Amino acid sequence: MNKIYVVGIGPGEYEQMTLRAIHALENCDTIVGYTVYVDLVKEHFAGKEFLTTPMRKEVDRCILAFEEAKKGKTVAMICSGDAGVYGMSGLMLELGENYPEVQVEVIPGVTAATGGAAVLGAPLIHDFCLISLSDLLTPWEKIEKRLLLASEADFAICLYNPSSKKRHDYLKKACDLMMQHKSQETVCGIVKNIGREGETYQILTLKELRDTEVDMFTTVFIGNSQTQRIGNAMVTPRGYRHD
Amino acid sequence: MNKIYVVGIGPGEYEQMTLRAIHALENCDTIVGYTVYVDLVKEHFAGKEFLTTPMRKEVDRCILAFEEAKKGKTVAMICSGDAGVYGMSGLMLELGENYPEVQVEVIPGVTAATGGAAVLGAPLIHDFCLISLSDLLTPWEKIEKRLLLASEADFAICLYNPSSKKRHDYLKKACDLMMQHKSQETVCGIVKNIGREGETYQILTLKELRDTEVDMFTTVFIGNSQTQRIGNAMVTPRGYRHD
What we know:
Chains A, B: Keywords: Cobalamin biosynthesis, Methyltransferase, S-adenosyl-L-methionine, Transferase. The first copy, chain A, is α/β, with parallel strands linked by helices. Chain A has eight helices and 13 strands. In chain A, strands 3-2-4-1-5 form a five-stranded parallel β-sheet, sandwiched between helices. The first copy, chain A, is elongated. At the A-B interface, helix 1, helix 4, helix 5, strand 6 and strand 7 of A face helix 1, helix 4, helix 5, strand 6 and strand 7 of B.
């Protein structure tokens, strides 16, 4: 059986992997991934073959994995967070049509939204949206529309890819759009390096977030109208009525 | 130190817990939870004290946990999925204000959205929303508004609590609302008993979903305009442009 596991390794530290993910990596011959993620797991899976490709070479990475599996190797394709949230599982299933002899199994993990939420407290207890600010594959107009409608619907919002070298003002633009429907005082949070060395977080208002610089290792959380700051935690209640 | 871990145990099977969650349960004296979830973990943590409360007694369950921690015990409050997604971490942090001597640590897990997505393929690869159809604590009008605006924004949508004895027609109502903005042919998926005995899934159109009965152990996925059926998988592409 030619088999590929597409594995979400969680935020980064070994402790936050699921047992299922650990067992898949233990049972495979070859671990394929983006260089940074392979470096995160390498020490825990000695004796495996490691193959890496740079960022944005996702199609090449998938083909590499399928070609190894075709040779009869059991392959694990690793992704940070969850393989199914801005991860590789979709592309693997799309390209898998060309490799009918290879079975693809997706193994979920803790994504940055829930990993970061746990660091901040409980910002995503109730209905929420995930929106990526990367316009590499999505027109910015589509992202704008989602930010506006999600804010109008009073969702808590978690932003992935809030910044990059080319997109240094996107978070500011996103905050301005959200402030068309959300109060400037909405409780927000940012978490940097979730589950990795140098993990830090900050709770601030939407207005303050607008003028905050974040990097690509940061996940951003915007509360709904009920979200509160309780001590050092960002907490969204379970609903709008009280018991 | 009086300590409570609020632990997301993932979909249900031991294999899908994170190492961090397993270590928290191993290191605690007392495990508190809803009866069904305690039964899921009991066999793996022999020798612990187990305390349970019935469904909907969430406040009582939290107070029970804090009172045990006050006595000096290390307590784990367990939730299915992720503790921060329709889970107990928010209420624990709210009630924690009354117990300043007790430290609360939230440990994330695999939530039904990403656990179920992995079963279906890759429905949540791109921007998505989580919406609960339970109107126990949220006015139905608010839920309607979210369904409409999320559909208008072309989000993939994952529905939690799609049905209960009292709310048997809510999924039908939700589908009718979503069809105001989404095509009847939108690719959808349902997963029952994610990561538990009797796990099953089905891929169908939004129109077919409208006339499908689901139970409270089912999680529902509605694709965006780009979502496809590939073989037996539900796959949302990474964006709207192609490489």
